[in-house]
Amino acid sequence: MTETPHPLYDRHADTLDRALTAITERGYWSAYPESPSPRVYGETAAADGKAAFEAYLGGDFPLDQPGDGDRVATETSPFGVPLDVRYPHATADQLVTAASAALPAWRDAGPQARVGVCLEILARLHKHVFELANAVQFTSGQAFVMAFQAGGAHALDRALEAVAYAYAEMTRHPGTAAWEKAAGKGDPLRMTKTFHVVPRGVALVIGCNTFPTWNSYPGLFASLVTGNPVVVKPHPRAVLPLAVTVRYAREVLAEAGFDPNLVLLAPEAPGEKLASTLALHPAVKIVDFTGSTEYGDWLEANVRQAAVYTEKAGLNTVVVDSTDDFAGMCRNLGFTLTLYSGQMCTTSQNILIPRDGIDTDQGHKSFDEVAAGIAAAVGKLTADPARGVELTGAIVNDGVLDRLDEVTKVGTPVLESRTVTHPSFPDAVVRTPAVVKLDASETATYSREWFGPISFAIATDSTAHSLDILRATVGEKGALTAAVYSTDEAVLDAAENTAIEVGVHLSGNLTGGVFVNQSAAFSDFHGSGANAAANSALTDGAYVANRFRIVQSRRHA
Asked: CA 96 from chain center: how many Å?
């Protein structure tokens, strides 16, 4: 039985083929341009996208899906811009019932049809990428260019990557097989066997506040393309980016002749705990979550009926041993700590430096000089408010502000956080990064996560001691990134071996335009699933293959 190609599959076959090549080559490739330049997207694209975003504000979001008739509005912009978008509310049972009813026809359509529809959804979202970027900016606190890149183009790349991996896994075996076995002097035994790709059931995506699209798209599209209807439950403070996503996904599904309830939005009323109710629903068979370690651990421990994919948090660590480009190292780390005010799950927190200092191209640098060099790079990037806010963005929630207050009571400040007035948004909540000196003995302080613009320069006994600390802290708490600076190949090899032991991705001697807290779709893995910070990787075969099962039927030929 050969699957009949779907028109949308044919339309996007070249994109799929290129993505399938990219995940095997692991070189640079992107399907969606990351520059918001008019030369790329056209002269009116930016204005049109902003106008589309502004049209949502203060009104009922246009989404026709099952619900209970109520509307909820829970978003507060870190930039101080009134949002007041009202979203249709539904109960967990209403959402699951509608999603379940949509499953059979989607399952029976086959992998090629599902891939075609998913790629058309991505194309539709790309058409509205400026609208999406504005929604990400004003709910997450990211500066516009970052929101366009990470929340728009790069999120779409990660979604496409998930689709490519899923297609490869769904089609790694034939749809049918002729089986024949010799049976002595009699006729051979002959069977015709059919292998069906069967989805697990309703999938739930629980979005986060900081990267509502980038972190949600891989799970959303990995589940959808493998046949599972998806309930998208946004973070209460970042609903709009995922509402826009669901709107256009439903539009494409309906146009393609499928039930739009294959993708549903699940905004929650204050205190409703809708995510937990949905996660524990017997019909929910897949859960994707990005957010706090505490809630991720709860999902892993309590959601027994579903496959649970979590990206949580950890102690991202830098080991500084030596460098042949001290200025480049400081600039690179300074940018890493400044970008989006450190509100990235990949941003470095613990910078381990020998207390006796390091050798550099500028001569020997003391521990204090290394810490001061990194802090000076941060200070330079944030000195001019007009330029600085385009890197820092705004503070996403009060928890970050609380930690900035708390960190003033520990260690010795190298660089204190400042309040900055945003030149375009006077009500924006903007803080510059803080850098604090600690001793390696102050384990209780640096062995917990301080999410936000907070980093520690930690004095260790030696580079070997630094690697021991990395091994112990990341081994216990996990990490998404690690970095090492050294001119000694033996140290670089030792750091790599340590990273392998604790399952963390390692970057070595970054001094140019690549930063430890950024990852490229189709080439870099995000998370490894090999330590406590995440139980899966974006994106590999394991991330998609457990979202469906193969069910075979056989008959005598």
From this structure: 25
